[in-house]
Each structure stands twice: as structure tokens, then as C-alpha cells.
Design goal:
eight-stranded mixed sheet; binds flavin-adenine dinucleotide; 386 residues; alpha/beta; D-Amino Acid Oxidase, Chain A, domain 2
Length: 386
């Protein structure tokens, strides 16, 4: 007779953190017939009942979360001092998803899936074991085959040999007394604002002719004081929205790390997902679509092999170099950020820019795009980053 000291695996998958990446992954697992019966445990510390963020991103065609897209635009403005352009987005749409709609939608699907258990608890640590993982929380411990972790236990900004910038922003949803917005076109970047803190722009996402999300955004090393963001927003509205009367309906504040720091991809049977898994694009802060791609790859790999670990492609490494070069240029102020983006938007079709920022260009397109940027500063940064 053999004895087996190993405890039975309770869950196939433990998802640690139920925000954008944890929920995106579970939703995709549930939509894949060969995986939809797997036993899943989701551990999330909060109730997710607040509209704590708004995701904006570009996408071709209808996406996996199309049903919760609250608004989309087929053209977008770019402004910098001395240059403005209205760009038709071609096959792309710039889309907006409100956090609260996303959370409600996902938790509704999850609560009607008997194989998914949700625990509201704080994850303390994840231990790797020979046959899986053990996740320790404030109130207990759970055993699973694989863990998908989106909690940042180590601060990547502590890595000394990496470039770090912060993308920080304050946004207001404002309602105006008169018509003030063109609902068909959003403003992706408007650099016609004071640049003395560093790279600074505003983006405007019109929801109706009288309502828009206006966000004052910086790529710098230090955060500002709250009243400096408020002044940035007020000044922009005064200068570029014809001094309309408005009231603030909602407010958001966010900080996204833009860093060349290395993020762990895996440890034992744990896979790191979302921002904690390096899915925030270092040079732009965009994350939502990278999370979608990562979730799709994990599900594909699980379907094919039964384990979630896929190999990063060589192309990913090339894009990490591009990201480091752009961070190098911005941090060392080799060229002011507004000038870099002005050149990029002046000399390239928007679809090429989107593909480049999505890590989806071919080498020819990359050479064409990079050759439109200020040559000497980018060459110097490029050599430094090899
Ligand atoms: C305000 C804001 C606006 C953003 N806007 C955009 C945008 O427009 N476009 C874009 O591409 N990206 C945007 N981002 C960046 C990125 O898309 C989001 O941060 C996204 O939510 C990252 O997903 P995630 O799963 O990695 O982290 P999160 O969504 O933050 O999920 C992590 C989850 O883990 C939970 N958690 C944390 N610690 C513990 C613990 N110890 N135990 C249990 N649970 C825990 C948290 O409550 C959270 O629910 C934005 C970020 C912010 C902050």
C-alpha cells in the first residue's frame, strides 16, 4: 500500500487579485469550452464597487469586452505648439471602458459560474510547492495547481539599474452648460500646455456634446501637488474649451509606472499577470490591451499544453529596447517629450503609430517610424541602451 502525504489540489487555478488582469483572464478561461469547468479561486481584497478608473485604448474591430465599451471614436485630434491634426483612425477605434461597468460585468458572469469561488481577503504570500502553489491570506490558505498573480509584492521602482518615469494624471468628467464637444473625435494628446514640469499633455474624451473626460497627464519622475493638477485642468478648460461654464461630475487620479525594470514572468507554478507581470508598456503606460493579449496567450497555452507558460517572442525583446530608448530620451531630456510626439504624429500615419505602440510593427515600419524622430538624440540613447 502506498501512502500519499500530498494534500489534494483544491483548485486548478488561483487568481490572486481581481482587477483588470485577474478578471480578464477568468473571463477568457470561462469562454474557452475546454477550460470552462476548471475549478477557479479568485482572491480579491476589495468589493470592486467603485468606478476607480477608466480605460481608454485603441482596438481593431470588436473586442472581447465590446459589450462594456461605453463610447468609441473613429477619429482623434493631436495638438502641439505649431501643429494640429485630425486623424481618421482607419480600421481602429479609440474606445473607453468605465472600471465599474467592467467589474460589474465580470463579477456577474463569475457569480453565475458554479466552478468559480470568490473570496474577499488579503493575499499575504504565494508559496511554490512541488505539485502546485499555496496561497496565504490574512484569513487562511488555499491550494491550487497554478496561481496567476496581479499583486505587486515587490516595487519595480526600487530596481536601481533601470529607467523609471511615472505617468500620473488627474481627470475630471465635466458637464458643460453649452455644447462644447465634438462627439465624433477625441483628443489623444494635446501638448499645448505648459511643459515646465516635463512631458505634459491633456486628453479629452467627449461622451456627449456637453460631457467629456478631460485628463491632465504627465510623464515625469515626481508627482505634483494636488492643486497643480487642478490648475492644469482649469487652465486647459479656460484656454481651449472657450471658457465654458462647467461642473465636475467625477474625478480620477492615477499613477502608472513607466519603467524598464524587469518584472518576473513566472516563479514555480505562479505566473505574473497585468502590471505585476510587466504588461504596462514602459514608454506609454498603456496596459489594457497588453493585458488582453496576455490573457489570450495564457488561455491558448493552457488549451494546447495544460500549463500557462508561453515563451516571450524575440520581437518582445526588440520592443523593450525601443521602450528603454524612449525612456532614456525623456529622462535625460535629450529632446522635450512634446517635440518627440509632435514629430511622430506629424510624419507617420496614425495606424503605424498604433501598431508601433502595440509592439506589432514589422522592421520596415519601425525603421520608417524611428527615422522620423530627432536623429542624434535617439542615436545616442539607442547606443546607450544596447
Ligand atoms: C486611474 C488609472 C487609469 C488607467 N487608465 C488606463 C487607460 O486608460 N489605458 C490603459 O491601457 N491603462 C490604464 N491604466 C493602467 C492599467 O490598465 C490599470 O492599472 C489596470 O487596472 C492594471 O490591471 P492589473 O490587473 O495589473 O491591476 P489592478 O486592476 O489594479 O488589479 C489588481 C487587483 O489586486 C487587488 N489587490 C492588491 N493587493 C491585494 C492583496 N494583497 N490581496 C488581495 N487583492 C489585492 C486590487 O484590489 C486590485 O483589484 C490605468 C491605471 C489607473 C490607476
Amino acid at each position: 500500500m502506498t501512502t500519499n502525504n500530498l494534500q489534494p489540489t483544491t483548485y486548478n487555478f488561483i487568481v490572486s487579485g481581481g482587477g483588470c488582469s485577474g478578471l480578464s483572464l477568468i473571463m477568457r478561461i470561462l469562454s474557452e469550452p475546454s477550460l470552462s469547468n476548471k475549478k477557479i479561486l479568485l482572491i480579491e481584497q476589495s468589493e470592486k464597487n467603485l468606478n476607480d478608473r477608466t480605460w481608454c485604448f485603441w482596438e481593431e474591430g470588436k473586442g472581447f469586452f465590446e459589450s462594456v465599451v461605453c463610447k468609441q471614436w473613429s477619429s482623434s485630434w493631436f495638438h502641439a505648439n505649431g501643429y494640429s491634426s485630425l486623424n481618421e483612425l482607419g480600421s481602429y477605434r479609440y474606445k473607453m471602458i468605465r472600471g465599474i461597468d467592467f467589474y460589474r460585468h465580470c463579477y456577474q458572469v463569475i457569480s453565475s459560474s458554479p466552478n468559480v469561488t470568490v473570496v474577499h481577503d488579503k493575499v499575504i504570500s504565494i508559496q511554490q510547492e512541488s505539485d502546485g502553489v499555496r496561497v496565504f491570506t490574512e484569513r487562511g490558505e488555499h491550494k491550487g495547481g497554478y496561481a496567476f498573480n496581479s499583486i505587486l509584492f515587490d516595487d519595480p521602482l526600487q530596481q536601481k539599474n533601470a529607467h523609471h518615469l511615472l505617468q500620473h494624471f488627474k481627470g475630471w468628467v465635466i458637464e458643460t452648460e453649452e455644447d462644447a464637444f465634438d462627439v465624433d473625435a477625441c483628443t489623444l494628446m494635446d501638448f499645448r500646455v505648459d511643459q515646465h514640469h516635463g512631458t505634459t499633455f491633456v486628453y479629452v474624451m467627449p461622451l456627449t456634446q456637453r460631457k467629456a473626460l478631460v485628463e491632465y497627464t504627465l510623464f515625469t519622475e515626481q508627482l505634483l501637488k494636488d492643486d497643480q493638477y487642478v490648475d492644469g485642468l482649469k487652465n486647459y478648460i479656460k484656454d481651449y474649451l472657450q471658457g465654458v461654464n462647467y461642473r465636475i461630475e467625477e474625478e480620477e487620479f492615477g499613477v502608472i509606472p513607466m519603467t524598464s525594470a524587469k518584472f518576473k514572468r513566472k516563479e514555480g507554478n505562479t505566473m505574473f499577470i497585468g502590471t505585476a507581470g510587466g504588461q504596462t508598456k514602459a514608454s506609454s503606460g498603456f496596459t489594457f490591451m497588453f493585458i488582453q493579449k496576455q490573457s489570450a496567450m495564457i488561455v491558448e497555452q493552457l488549451k494546447k499544453t495544460g500549463n500557462p507558460f508561453y515563451h516571450p517572442s524575440k520581437i518582445d525583446r526588440r520592443y523593450h529596447w525601443f521602450d528603454r530608448v524612449l525612456l532614456n530620451v525623456l529622462i535625460k531630456r535629450r529632446v522635450p517629450g512634446d517635440q518627440v510626439f509632435k514629430k511622430m504624429f506629424q510624419k507617420n500615419p496614425i495606424e503605424r503609430i498604433f501598431r508601433f505602440l502595440d509592439n506589432e510593427t514589422n522592421m520596415g515600419e519601425e525603421i520608417r517610424l524611428i527615422s522620423t524622430l530627432p536623429t542624434i538624440p535617439f542615436l545616442k540613447a539607442g547606443f546607450e541602451e544596447i
